[in-house]
């Protein structure tokens, strides 16, 4: 090979390889410090596009999970109110049954009617007062179809509807028990039938709330599984294999050090030309 001072091919080759290894070492450092294999779209264009889409999907699923939990809390709030109303209606049945019996006189029936009036008042207070975030749930003013978004897509499969339109007040539009009269035996006998009808409606409505809570619990469990799988997919595509990156970094670091030494040797070889002039 001719000896030349204008072009040092050994130095050029050593510099090229050292730059390549230095770039690889810096890329490994970036991945080791961030924990991600993909830090920019240029690292893996297809992988970046897929992981970005999956991250968007994960965000929507997390929001849907929160919606499901809040929907469950809302339905449970309504159900707990209905539970107390049901307990008071059962107590009213006991009072009506006592008042309908001939062994109770006018004074006893007056006392029974007084307790019944207090219970009726409390039923109305609960029905008119139970709300979730300002939305009344038991006074009949709610929507017949209250829709909760519990999925990532705008479709019926990702929504749950709950009926909050039932009226649990004592009015005729609700339970229809406001006018019960326990001051007479005949009135108490009529009240027994009225309260039985009211209780049947209460148990039906409460059962629907219970079914909605169960449905939402399954929705929440399914969303948790979906988020887990999406997170695993993102990790597979985007996360760095730390053991592999450390091995690559060590290899590149050694090659950079060797390249630096070889570049110095290649540069020194040009000095050999001077021996020709001695």
TrEMBL record:
Keywords recorded for this protein, A-Z: Bacterial flagellum, Cell projection, Cilium, Flagellum, Secreted
Domain named Flagellin N-terminal: residues: 5-141
SUPFAM superfamilies: Phase 1 flagellin
InterPro entries according to UniProt: Flagellin, Flagellin_C, Flagellin_C_sub2, Flagellin_N
Record field: transmembrane: none
Positions of the Flagellin C-terminal domain: 193-277
Alphabetized Gene3D superfamilies for the sequence: f41 fragment of flagellin, N-terminal domain (1.20.1330.10), Flagellar export chaperone, C-terminal domain (6.10.10.10)
Location relative to the cell: Secreted; Bacterial flagellum
One Pfam family hit: Flagellin_C
GO terms for cellular component: bacterial-type flagellum; extracellular region
GO MF terms, alphabetically ordered: structural molecule activity
Family under the similarity heading: Belongs to the bacterial flagellin family.
Biological role stated in the UniProt entry: Flagellin is the subunit protein which polymerizes to form the filaments of bacterial flagella.
Name of the protein this chain belongs to: Flagellin
């Amino acid at each position: 090979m001719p000896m030349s001072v204008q072009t040092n091919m050994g130095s050029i080759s050593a510099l090229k390889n050292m730059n390549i290894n230095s770039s690889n070492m810096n890329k490994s450092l970036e991945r080791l410090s961030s924990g991600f294999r993909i830090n920019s779209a240029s690292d893996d264009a297809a992988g970046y596009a897929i992981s970005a889409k999956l991250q968007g999907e994960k965000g929507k699923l997390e929001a849907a999970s929160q919606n499901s939990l809040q929907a469950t809390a809302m339905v449970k709030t309504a159900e707990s109110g209905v539970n107390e109303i049901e307990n008071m209606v059962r107590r009213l049945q006991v009072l009506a049954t006592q008042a309908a019996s001939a062994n109770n006189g006018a004074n006893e029936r007056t006392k029974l009617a007084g307790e019944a009036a207090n219970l009726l008042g409390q039923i109305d207070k609960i029905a008119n007062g139970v709300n979730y975030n300002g939305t009344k749930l038991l006074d009949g003013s709610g929507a017949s179809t209250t829709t909760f978004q519990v999925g990532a897509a705008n479709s019926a499969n990702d929504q749950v509807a709950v009926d909050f339109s039932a009226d649990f007040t004592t009015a005729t539009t609700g339970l229809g028990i406001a006018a019960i009269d326990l001051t007479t035996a005949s009135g108490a006998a009529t009240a027994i039938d009225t309260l039985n009808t009211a209780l049947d409606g209460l148990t039906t409505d409460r059962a629907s709330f219970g079914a909605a809570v169960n449905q939402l619990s399954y929705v929440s469990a399914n969303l948790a599984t979906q988020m887990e799988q999406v997170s695993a997919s993102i990790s597979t595509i985007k996360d760095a294999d730390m053991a592999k990156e450390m091995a690559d970094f060590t290899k590149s670091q050694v090659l950079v050090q060797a390249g630096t030494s070889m570049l110095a040797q290649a540069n020194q070889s040009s000095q050999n030309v001077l021996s020709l002039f001695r």
